[in-house]
Please model this.
Amino acid sequence: MKKLLPLLAFATVTMTLATGCGKKEAPDSTNATDAGGKKKLTLGFSQVGAESAWRTANSQNIKDEAAKNGVNLVFSDAQQKQENQIKALRSFVAQNVDVIAFSPVVETGWEPVLQEIKAAKIPVVLSDRSVDVSDPSLYASFIGADFVEEGRRAGKFLAEKTGGKATIVELVGTPGAAPAIDRAKGFREAIASHPDMKIVKSQSGDFTRAKGKEVMEAFLRAPDAGQITALFSHNDDMALGAIQAIEEAGRQPGKDIAIVSIDGVKGAFEAMKAGKLNCTVECNPLIGGQIMDLAQKLANHQEVPRRVVSQEGVFDQSKAEAELPSRKY
Ligand code: GYE
Model:
């Protein structure tokens, strides 16, 4: 049962030093102090948005952990738009925050703004999603899940569940986002050795419940929709939307169409308990405490691990009911 607990382990690849040495030329606009008059650490956090239950839990946890650790948090929601995130990051530089953390909506296009942050000598922590940059010195640490492995786990489950024979539709996350790219890759790897498992349709539902429903409705309207026997959804929210669409089309989710998704949010456990979802691969959003720890160390010019991988489990219907009461998100 130990694996049911979302354990977080430090998988240290390389140790790196904060890029923050000698910063503080600009006047400080972040003067929050604690009860003892000591200057608090200011962390600028740029969040992706509020697209899913996973994200809501992640944002809440970051806010709670900042408060608990006496960190002055400047939190900004980008509403799933990269341009909003870039603006937020620039404003953190202008405010001369001590550390910047962000969860990049997509993987590419960050080099210029990360160069500006580096020039301002502010250390950067990547939260949950990574970036694709050629210069490794543009960030100090990346904390988050192994999305390729999550995709593999989903594929492996579906292969077992269907006996290696399935006509699969795929609900993809936000185009260009690390979890969308990597989960698709891992899933394909896992089903590659099963010639009778075929992905026949693949489309983005942007990680939201509403879009997941809409895209699944379109899949089910196609003339060959009767052949669909399985759904792989890149997150639970899209799967929950798809479940509604499947029911409205007069088919039974979890029975006529086997469904596997990723995240492990409460709604997914409820759907598994009701027999409508077959499996969720866990992705842990509760990384706020570790982000605060990394930020404190970077602000103190201490070494931090370059990569921190969250450890996660896989839950099918047989485990759903027992696990549900202890789900934190
Ligand atoms: O799976 C999804 C969210 O980046 C891991 O983003 C995160 C993903 C998560 O919208 O629900």
Q: What stands out?
A: The chain has two domains: 40-145+285-310, 147-283. Residues 17 and 303 are 5 Å apart (CA to CA).
